[in-house]
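Dear Dr. H.,

I hope your travels went smoothly. While you were away I took the liberty of generating a structure for the chain from your last submission, since the lab meeting agenda had it listed for discussion. I wanted you to have the full record in hand beforehand rather than looking at slides cold. The sequence, exactly as received, is reproduced here:
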Amino acid sequence: MLRREEKGESEIWKEIWSKKSEKEEMAPIRVKTALELLGSPQTLFTPVLSWGEGKESACALLESLLQTYGVSSGLFRAGAKDLKGAIKARGKSPSSKRLSDLYEELENFLSLAEEKFEKEGLGKMGPLETLLCLSALEFSDEPVDAGIFEVPEEGFEGIFRELDPAGLILTSDPSCPLPLDLIKPPSFIASLLQREEEMEALRERAQESESPLMVDGENMKVYNDLLAVGGQVADLSTPRGLYPQVPIKLFGEFQAHLALLSLSAAEMMLSEGKLEEDLVSEAFGSVNVPGSLKVEKPDPLTLSCSASSPFKTDLCLSALEDTFHPSSLAAVLAAGENFDPASLKVLSERCDLLVATELPGGKTGAKDLFSMAKGCFDEGSLLCIPDFPSALNRAREIVSGQEGCVLVTGGMEAVLEAEKELN
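The corresponding predicted structure, in token form, is as follows:
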């Protein structure tokens, strides 16, 4: 039998995202069926789900801690921009050949699934369903001991429930209710303190499912959070004990609380007692989170952050101000695919200048962005420079010598472009 021509990574990515999901309410049933046809790969590793704003950091922190402890792990990033960024196993992206072989294997099984779906009126699988099955297949084939999954907040929680998660990390999301249906007995839950009515529902659900519940600010806490070179140092307290002076290579108080959630989750997965302090410090002191607040260039200080929602933008600016104390702040804004225009109001309250720009194929052009910003910024605090390199250079020129800094933001696309221009 002749083997078909190998597909490239970008071709596979485009093919997956060209799929049109049908009958969204049937998606969980489709995923359950597809996973069964694949041999239930999710049963060969321990699935942990992370949901809410900051889930990227929570996943990266947990992955780093597990790997430091010698536990092999897989990571699925729902918001990745390419296939290698979406799926990682043992800290590495699969090779192009591996991805081609994996996708070919998946297609053979999914052709059977699609036939079954058509007969039973279940509709067609969409991109996220396909990616979820692809990641589960890779994690089982690698194999890994634990699979860490970012759960999007756009109504796709049901398909991740079919993984039968062993644990759930809940950060926060002011725009979405908690995904309580993701909690399946006897999974553990590590959560930030949520709104009062949601905490009540969470406690009820945890009790019903007999799931251990760890809540930041209640049975675990962050103490003595201090700034440090390249991030911060904090005392982290969990039901298992106190971890003093843990270095966290991320900026901002919120990131320290995400580290606490990840530490609590790792305790549940790794042991019956407290973890080794040295290993926790090693793991959290070396973690890298794509799109988090990052120094790109000194003199003038230039940072990037993929924040695209009002909540994340506020966190980013707070971390920047608390860490660097700039005398002035210029934001270079290129709106990515998920940019929320409500972020402009947050930026206007903290930035002295906004330079509206754009990227090829971006969601919003510089002129449209500039027009929207007029409703929040004074005219003297706005510039419109469509060419991204020119916009970045102009902002750096303006703050140079003023002990100010430049923040490139608007989405991961803007971060990647800043890295390309400055490094």
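Two observations you may find useful: The chain has two domains: 9-284, 294-422. The radius of gyration is 22 Å.

With kind regards,
E. W.
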